[in-house]
Amino acid sequence: MAKNRSTHHSNRRNRQSDSDLRLRDGLEIPVGDTTMTIRVDQQRATIFLGDYESSGINLLDPGDLDFEYMQQMTCALDAFIPRPRKVHALHLGGCACALPWAWETHRPGSSQVAVEINSDIAQACRALFDLPRSPRLRIRVDDAHRVISSAKARNYDVIVRDVFNGPHTPRRLRSAQFYRRAHAALADDGILLVNCGHGRGFDARGDVAAALAEFAHVAMVAEGKTLAGGRRGNLVLIAVGAGHPHINRGWAECQRRLRSLPLSVRFLPRADVERWVGTTQPIHDE
Hints:
By secondary structure, this protein is an alpha/beta fold. Helices cover about 30% and strands about 25% of the residues. Helix 1 runs antiparallel to helix 8 (about 245-260), helix 5 (about 175-185) packs across helix 6 and helix 6 crosses helix 9.
């Protein structure tokens, strides 16, 4: 399962200084209550938090995304907001910032904020990787729930939710209240992209039901085995603002782009997503 981090702020006493950090295969860095390990194979770096793969970066071409769900999110963004249009993006979940880094290469001059709760992870990734600098990419050390709760209305072209604590996304980032806040923070023609974990004991239906209750234009992308629950993996939820002028054209272009990816996936339009969710009720904040 991609993207994993502690939801607790890190212990600064364990922090390595920037001068101690040199990118190499097998590098291990204490980051709060877990360890960040980096594996380097030729030009590709894979970042692990504990036992979980969290980010993958092509060091020579950051626009070449390694993780399938990030490729799928990029297909959706490019379908509804074509390149090279600049975007104002909020990424809830940062780690090595592979996705915003790729989007900066595709859309130079964009303004992006990546929210990472673990300050050690944020500092280490800034030191190790040649990430774009603010305002092109600002890494904000904060809690994703607090950030979306205080976001300005209609402020972002795109919001990405990619937050995990181990294999779980915190409940208050899967709830109807979360989707309401995200919708309010999006431009009228904006797009919300959500990484949901599903399968092998993890059920994303309540998460997706919450999105269906808030957004009129919703679709989902997943591998068949993951969708059926037989394999633990990523479901990508796509929700588009009602003010987008070319909804149908955008969905058609999204499907065309998805078909060009190496990994074959299923695209579910809203009606199929509703059937998949069935009678499952939306999650609500406790």
